[in-house]
Design a protein that fits this description.
The complex is a heterotrimer of chains A (388), B (529) and C (368).
Chain A: H1 2-17, E1 29-39, E2 45-53, E3 65-73, H2 76-84, E4 90-92, E5 98-102, H3 103-107, H4 110-115, H5 119-122, E6 129-133, H6 137-142, H7 146-150, H8 153-164, E7 171-172, H9 173-182, E8 188-194, E9 219-228, E10 231-237, H10 238-248, E11 253-259, E12 265-281, E13 286-296, H11 305-334, H12 342-347, H13 353-359, H14 361-364, E14 369-379
Parallel strand pairs in A: 1-4, 1-5, 5-6, 6-8, 13-14
Antiparallel strand pairs in A: 1-2, 2-3, 6-7, 8-9, 9-10, 11-12, 12-13
Helix pairs in contact in A: 10-11
Chain B: H1 3-6, H2 51-62, E1 70-77, E2 81-88, H3 94-107, H4 118-129, E3 135-138, H5 141-150, E4 153-157, E5 163-166, H6 196-206, E6 212-218, E7 226-232, H7 238-249, H8 259-266, E8 278-280, H9 283-291, E9 295-299, E10 305-308, H10 312-315, H11 326-355, H12 363-372, H13 380-400, H14 406-423, H15 429-442, H16 448-486, E11 488-489, E12 492-493
Antiparallel strand pairs in B: 1-2, 2-4, 3-5, 4-5, 6-7, 7-9, 8-10, 9-10, 11-12
Chain C: H1 10-27, H2 31-34, H3 41-66, H4 71-113, H5 120-137, H6 139-163, H7 181-190, H8 195-204, H9 212-240, H10 243-246, H11 272-300, H12 305-321, H13 328-367
Helix pairs in contact in C: 1-6, 1-8, 1-9, 1-11, 3-7, 3-8, 3-9, 3-13, 4-5, 4-8, 4-11, 4-12, 4-13, 5-11, 5-12, 6-11, 8-11, 11-12
The chains are: A alpha/beta (388), B alpha+beta (529), C mainly alpha (368).
Chain lengths: 388, 529, 368
């Protein structure tokens, strides 16, 4: 009896051993941090993969770097096949943090082509962040600073921090697919650019706003790319991005400068006071948005800034912001990008899926008019500059 | 063997060989020959009437012509009655025998005072002659033999069918010292010794209660050591006591030397990684258990006591927990549980994440892991098992090596081997640290048997992770926990009072209030309830 | 007689019921069907549990009136032994069906989301091991396992939701009640076929739960937990993804953190949640297999439950492994037939047993 039991135990153990699930040592993989997609010359796209390289064992910091490999192909799989031959180990996409579309690719709907890639088979996380490069994605990747080329997760973290501070929009692939499939909001991607360091005797027009700039990272984020579905329709700079985020309800902190009636240049720090209030009137096709902000100015000892604020400056500031918001709203509507999420508001008026799907919001989008109501409160805190 | 022997041919080897006594060839897979059941000893045997008969009996059974330490001392009581004292030199105290038995018997008794009946002589001697504390009349020759071997002195009278068995034990024993393996900072520093009487005394000093009972019986081994079953008669559940006695009575083996052997022969699940009795060398722990209604078994010759039933919470409790204040005790216990849990699961989880689920690791950790594994030529699973084995080798070597160089073993193992292994690309530094932490966590487990059991579980989980990643780990972990959950120690679920939830508020992991120890645990079902 | 029933207390049985109902509610939702026309699962799933609970109360009422200790005794008295045998075997089959669906779901989830490159069979083989072990160990072990893991699973589950709050947005639930009140109601009733056997099983095993009173207490508390947890889970899913995305996801809970903006050290460990759910799933599946085996043995007079459980596991394993074979279409065809008709069958059985039992009791009283 004992022998029979022992035999059965051995057989059932073998049964378990057949369920080996193919372990792979961690160093057998080459981890792809980022994917860049540009227009190809010979083939449809030029894929650039940023692959992690490990440091030396005896190096006390034990930190590596990364290398960029490029190949052209009609699909990502083609490019991977080519790059695979020069990269040691199997390529692993589980750590891909960002996908960067070149501007040409973004305009021509390359994001949609990319969405047909099976994320499951590549084991890429759908939370991978999407960026659009003004120019070429490969250029942007090549000029990333060392702190990012060692660990691109930090770039993702920094982008998220900027988003939380209301400086930049950020979109993951999962959100972009949801937006496009749902048809209630058009995605807004982070826009990035490369500005090479100033060099003597060279054309510096490509530097940051044409201003001489030395040191630091050449690649930087500069604004937003507006999409209509999978297609990029336009870009806006960081200043307009602030107003766009304000209109979307994602604004946290920012600054603005304006010229007062007294011909003085004033700079204000503005912060979110309360969440944006939205209301949609389906009958008249009006969308009313109320934006509440805080504003900080220097505390002036000689006079009460509060009285001046209420009498002179408050309405000016509010009007200024309102005009900017309406400008942005008109811009996005012109581009047929529902970047403000009006579709989301409209969908809340429906209690039946068939009715909502029949309504076809994309057809009715341009009929809506957005009205902004801005309220700015003064906050007694320290300092930007004098109002006076 | 000299060179000359090398060149001497055709001479049979004079090396000793233990030749096979059984007939026939063993079968292909071998067979297990269990010993034939022992025949029950005969009924109590009568004592031979004459002294010469008794002497012959001893010569035959005890081989007194060879055994020079079995002393058969004949003398005349009251100068007329032939008497013989039989004892084992070294087991009995010579001084006691000489002064209080032989001298009193030889000199102080007048034959006239002895009555005609030999049986009355025995009673008379017990009451009037032998000034010894424990003296009893015994008719069974078997019991007399056992008594002699225990260190007692038997006095036979010519013509009498009974003898006097006097407790004159006086063998050398170790002094009471602090426990070797259960040291505490706060609390008593007395540990059990190999002497049963001393151990019982230690318990009686702590538990001055009337219902504390010590039942003596044969351990069940052919070497006839005595075992004492200790319990509180008015508290311990009678069924539990009967079950302990029943299991002990079923023990029938060749040799029992230590409590560990007794434990294996009385437990139900021999293959379980966890023990079903708590082994301790601290009298205070045993006393605490006895007050709770548990039963303790003490074996003569073993400095450990077995407490049953036990639970996982008890195995993870150190004696010191109850002596500390509640917050300190709770913190220590939590750290201990965490240490134990981490030591069991950490190697497996690290292995699973590194070889199957690299996506779940942060970039920094993955980079560190990959960099540390540059040029390491063995798979990570093998590396993990190798280091776990090395750790166990160091531990075992540290225990077995002679005292003077145990420190050197620690240094060699800890520093040199670890560092050298990393430099030689045998192992990576990350895995080395994981295994080192695992080892530390393992030592948090107070009970030695449970520590070894944890090693067993750890290896199982590492194997499962190596084969199946987190899926293998989870599945095997569930099976292990289920097995522990269904385990019972003498009828009590092993995970009491947590699963099943019992009426007592005594927490499983934290140190409960001292007031919670006023009543026995609910799952003990004591007679007090 | 070896039924491995044992005895468990109130806490154990409550944890067991809560885990079984929650797992059944959360892990058996077919996305393609449930989210085809809007997202109302946060209503339909809890409503289905409530329907099952009402059925349980009806059975309990009948059992109390007749003074019987278990559901199969009620069935015996109500419809006679032969018909009761048929009904109980159908109940046993429905429990096995639940176990099968859960096994299939978990094997597919783990294979699709974690071990994409491995064979499906290898992944499934691992899951059979703890399920078989737990069911063989018996009801007492199941109860204790539920007690051990209950709170921890709940906390970890909810922590996973807390970490995903950044990605919530209320508008994703709209159109609210998109499917229409009528369809929602029908769906709630139809889908309660999964829960009715889960509610009746404790009534069959009531001798191991210290009687009907303890069963009632445990089931009430367990159901409350299950309703709340199912509601919260489906709501969280609905707040994270719109129905258009959900209908394309096999198991949305796995992708809960994908819409998250922030991916720091701990957010990447969201996949570990799958293994936490697996523990709950294994307990639930083992419970179903055990209960099915118990009913089968009671009705067929088998004196040892272990061979029965082993046979059931072999059948279930074969069916699960058939998922990736040519039998896939046949298998899923049968599953849809069972799913569409089970509610009626369950309801018929329960109503027949309870109402006939009450009628008989009434007649007996009149005779007295």
């Amino acid at each position: 009896m004992k022998r029979i039991c022992t035999f059965m135990l051995i057989v059932s153990s073998l049964f378990i051993f057949t369920a080996c699930l193919d372990a792979v040592q961690p160093e057998s993989y080459s981890y792809v941090f980022a994917i860049g997609i540009d227009k190809g010359k010979a083939k449809r796209y030029n894929y650039s993969l940023m692959v992690q390289t490990v440091g030396e064992k005896n190096d006390s910091s034990m930190v590596g770097s990364s290398e960029i490999f490029s190949a052209e192909g009609d699909t990502l799989f083609e490019a991977v096949d080519i790059i695979h031959s020069v990269v040691s180990g199997e390529m692993n996409f589980m750590r891909t943090s960002v996908i960067i579309f070149g501007s040409e690719v973004a305009k021509s709907g390359g994001a949609e082509d990319f969405s047909k890639v099976s994320f499951n088979s590549l084991r890429m996380r759908q939370s991978v962040k999407l960026l659009v490069a003004q120019g070429e994605a490969l250029d942007f990747m090549k000029n990333l600073g060392s702190q990012y080329s060692q660990n691109l997760t930090r770039l993702q973290v920094d982008l998220v921090m900027d988003n939380k501070m209301g400086i930049l929009p950020i979109t993951s692939f999962s959100i972009m697919s949801e937006n496009v499939m749902g048809g209630r909001l058009d995605p807004v991607l982070t826009l990035c650019n490369v500005a090479h360091g100033a060099k003597e005797g060279e054309d510096n027009a490509q530097n940051t706003s044409g201003v001489l700039r030395t040191g630091g990272m050449d690649s930087y984020v500069m604004g937003s790319a507006l999409f209509d579905g999978w297609y990029m329709k336009g870009t806006i700079d960081e200043n307009d991005t602030m107003y766009l985020l304000m209109a979307r309800g994602q604004f946290e902190k920012g600054y603005m400068t304006y010229e007062t009636k007294d011909k003085k240049i004033a700079t204000l720090l503005i912060e979110k006071n309360a969440d944006i209030k939205r209301k949609v009137d389906m009958k008249n096709k009006n969308v009313n948005l109320k934006v509440s902000l805080y504003c900080t100015v220097e505390f002036d000892e000689t006079s009460s800034i509060r009285e001046k604020w209420e009498e002179n400056y408050k309405k000016e500031v509010e009007e200024k912001i309102r005009l900017q918001l309406e400008r942005i709203a008109a811009l996005v509507m012109e581009l047929n990008c529902d970047s403000l999420g009006i579709g989301r508001l409209v969908s809340t008026k429906f209690y039946n899926t068939d009715a909502w799907e029949k309504y076809d919001f994309q057809e009715h989008y341009k009929e809506f008019k957005t009205n902004f109501d801005v309220e700015v409160e003064l906050k007694d805190k320290n300092i930007i500059t004098h109002m006076d | 063997m000299s060179i000359k022997d090398l060149f001497e041919f055709d001479i049979a080897s004079n090396e000793f060989e233990l030749l096979e006594s059984e007939k026939g060839e063993p079968s292909y897979f071998g067979t297990f020959h269990d010993a034939k059941p022992k025949q029950e000893p005969k009924e109590d045997e009568e004592i031979p009437e004459s002294i010469d008969g008794i002497k012959d009996r001893f010569k035959k059974e005890f081989h007194t012509d060879i055994n020079s330490d079995i002393v058969t001392r004949s003398f005349y009581m009251g100068s007329k009655l032939r008497t013989m004292a039989v004892f084992v030199k070294g087991m009995s105290d010579d001084r006691l025998i000489n002064e209080f038995i032989l001298r009193d018997a030889m000199q102080s008794v007048k034959v006239d005072e002895l009555t005609a009946s030999r049986e009355d002589i025995v009673e008379f001697c017990i009451s009037n002659v032998f000034a010894m504390g424990e003296s009893e009349k015994e008719k069974s020759f078997l019991k007399i033999k056992r008594g002699i071997l225990d260190g007692k002195c038997a006095i036979f009278f010519d013509g009498a069918k009974s003898a006097v068995l006097i407790d004159a034990r006086g063998y050398e024993k170790r002094a009471i010292t602090p426990p070797q393996n259960e040291k505490v900072v706060r609390g008593p520093h007395e540990g059990f010794t190999e002497n049963l009487r001393t151990n019982i005394t230690l318990l009686r000093r702590i538990l001055r209660v009337e219902d504390l009972v010590f039942e003596f019986r044969n351990s069940g081994g052919d070497n006839h050591l005595t075992v004492a079953i200790a319990y509180r008669k008015d508290v311990a559940n009678e069924t539990l006591v009967e079950e302990v006695k029943r299991r002990l009575s079923k023990v029938d083996t060749r040799l029992i030397i230590a409590d560990g052997m007794l434990e294996q022969l009385t437990e139900k699940r021999g293959l379980s990684p966890f023990p079903q009795v708590l082994s301790t060398e601290r009298p205070d722990r045993v006393a605490s258990a006895l007050m709770e209604g548990q039963v303790a078994v003490l074996l003569d010759g073993s400095p450990y006591a077995n407490i049953m039933p036990t639970t996982l919470s008890a195995l993870m409790t150190s004696a010191e927990d109850i002596y500390l204040r509640k917050p300190q005790g709770s913190v220590i216990r939590t750290i201990r549980f965490m240490g134990a849990l981490l030591s069991i699961v950490t190697p497996a989880i690290i292995l699973a994440l590194s070889t199957f689920h690299q996506g779940l690791l942060s970039t920094e950790m993955l980079a560190t892991l990959i960099t540390s594994r540059v040029m390491v030529f063995v798979p990570m699973g093998f590396e993990m098992l190798f280091l776990l084995l090395v750790f166990q080798l160091i531990r075992e070597a540290g225990l077995r090596v002679a005292g003077g160089i145990s420190q050197a073993v620690g240094i060699i193992g800890g520093l040199i081997l670890g560092q050298a292994a990393v430099t030689a690309n045998l192992v990576s530094s990350v895995v080395l640290i994981v295994v080192a932490l695992t080892g530390l966590g393992n030592f948090c487990i107070p009970d030695y048997s449970t520590q070894i059991g944890a090693v067993y579980l750890r290896l199982l989980l590492v194997m499962a992770s190596w084969i199946g990643g987190l899926l293998g780990f989870t599945c095997v972990l569930v099976v292990i926990i289920a097995d522990i959950a269904r385990m019972k120690s003498f009828g009590i679920p092993f995970l009491s009072p947590f699963a099943p939830k019992t009426a007592s508020r005594h927490p499983f992991m934290l140190r409960g209030k001292l007031k919670m120890h006023m009543r026995a645990d609910d799952y003990m079902n004591t007679q007090e309830e | 007689m070896r039924m491995n029933l044992g005895k468990i207390g109130a806490q154990e049985s409550t944890s067991l019921v809560a885990i079984v109902l929650s797992v059944t509610g959360i892990f058996t939702v077919e996305s393609a069907v449930a989210y085809a026309n809007g997202n109302s699962t946060f209503l339909t799933v809890p409503a289905s549990i409530i329907v099952g609970f009402l059925v349980f109360l009806l059975c309990l009422f009948a059992m109390n009136k007749l003074g019987v200790a278990t559901f199969h005794e009620l069935a015996d008295r109500a419809v006679g032994e032969k018909l009761s045998c048929v009904f109980m075997l159908i109940l046993s089959a429905s429990l096995l069906f639940n176990a099968f669906v859960l096994l299939l779901r978990f094997a597919t989830i783990i294979h699709s989301y974690i071990f994409v490159e491995s064979d499906y069979i290898r992944v499934a083989l691992w899951i059979f091991l703890p399920v078989l072990s737990l069911s063989l160990f018996g009801f007492e072990t199941l109860g204790r396992m539920a007690k051990i893991f209950g709170v921890a699973l709940l906390v970890l589950f909810l922590l996973g939701f807390v970490s995903a709050t950044d990605g919530f947005s209320v508008h994703r639930l709209y159109p609210l009640f998109g499917d229409g009140a009528y369809n929602i109601a029908i769906s709630s009733f139809k889908n309660s076929y999964k829960f009715i056997p889960a509610f009746i099983a404790p009534l069959v095993l009531s001798k191991g739960i210290n009687g009907v009173k303890t069963v009632k207490k445990s089931v009430i508390i367990g159901s409350v937990f299950a309703v709340l947890l199912s509601f919260i889970t489906q709501l969280v899913i609905g707040l994270t993804y719109e129905y258009t995305s959900l209908s394309n996801m096999y198991f949305p809970l796995c992708r809960l953190n994908m819409s998250l903006q922030n991916e720091d050290y701990f957010m990447r460990t969201d996949r570990i949640g799958v293994f936490i759910w697996l523990v709950a799933g294994v307990i639930a599946i083992a419970y179903y297999v055990y209960a099915a085996g118990f009913i089968f043995c009671k009705k067929t007079g088998t004196r040892d439950i272990r061979p029965c459980i082993v046979c059931f596991m072999i059948i279930l394993s074969s069916l699960v492994l058939a998922e990736y074979t040519k039998l896939y279409a046949v298998l899923h065809g049968v599953i849809s037939i069972i799913e569409s008709n089970s509610f009626i069958v369950m309801l018929l059985i329960v109503l027949t047993v309870t109402l006939l039992g009450l009628l008989k009791r009434g007649k007996e009283r009149q005779k007295e």
